[in-house]
């Protein structure tokens, strides 16, 4: 589980440095973006290896309905993570679509995994998403709903969300637990 903790430290540090120390971040300039990218990739590698190597220590038993809720929340979460890159009308109605998607991703995985490693990793990333939203709201309060976007953008958003979910679910069933109830 040490690698999961290392992954969380790298992830939180890389993502929150800009928010917590904006003056220092500005002083480092563009080269710092490369360092952040390396830290994020290293954190993902640490998560993957740390989770695969972690001893299974059961903490709670996931509910029987958790797998169904997981799939629904994952579909919504994956869509929200990509929402900021679309011309959907939904884009301007949600301040933190990617962070909200990440929080849903975290909750959805906690619904189907009750082991200590999962709680540490998914819970740690979910808490990071919520803390980041609070920091952004506190430091950048001037946000307003936007009416931009088109119906065509909405249709593309839904189609891409379903396609991304299907691709991730297929990869997940090949590499890890099958996300679909049998």
Overview of this structure, please?
By secondary structure, this protein is mostly helical. The chain folds into two domains: 1-54, no CATH class; 58-182, no CATH class. It is built from seven helices and no strands. The protein has helices at residues 2-20, 22-28, 31-53, 66-83, 97-112, 116-139, 151-175. It is globular and about 45 Å long. The mean pLDDT is 91. InterPro entries: NnrU_dom. It is a multi-pass membrane protein. Its main location: membrane. Residues 4-176 form the NnrU domain. This is Membrane protein.
Question: Which key phrases capture this entry?
Answer:
182 residues, mainly alpha
What's this entry about, in short?
With 182 residues, the protein is mainly alpha-helical.
Distance between the termini: 30 Å
Give the ordered list of helices and strands.
HHHHHHH
Beta percentage is: under 5%
**What class would the helix/strand composition place it in?**
mainly alpha
| Radius of gyration (Å) | 18 Å
Indicate the topology:
Elements lengths: L1 H19 L1 H7 L2 H23 L12 H18 L13 H16 L3 H24 L11 H25 L7
Helix pairs in contact: 1-2, 1-3, 1-6, 4-5, 4-7, 5-6
